[in-house]
Amino acid sequence: MPETLLRNTFHVPAPPDAVRAHLSEPASYIGLSPLVVEVRDVRREADLVRYVSVERFRFLGFLRYDNLLRVTLRSTEDAVEGEVDSPGGVKLAYRFGLTARDGGTEVADELRLRAAFGPLLGYAARQARAVQLARAGILADRAPAL
């Protein structure tokens, strides 16, 4: 199964504990990932959270497709990580490494995508990279409220 790795490191002007708490809450991903419009079926277990994330795509300006993603989310002392399983055959593993730096948090955002075939992986990687880059600014903008 072809795969690709995407990395982005950025600064958030909030302490690591606040960033970790925010990234550990499923509802925080609404808008943090520009395609995510809803989370549902949140189930909290001892050391992880499972939920369904609704990713909305628009085609031709009026056709709408809601992609339901199964997400598993874990928080550790220095990271938030998880897996995403898309019904379209795309699998994503992610990790937000969190390090105290310059009065805030350095976030090392790493995404590993896998797909059944190359063209699907290419499309998914382009979408994921756009979300990854947008997330840096969105999370930094949310910092005062964390």
TrEMBL record:
It comes from the Bacteria. SUPFAM superfamilies: Bet v1-like. This is Polyketide cyclase / dehydrase and lipid transport. It comes from Nonomuraea wenchangensis.
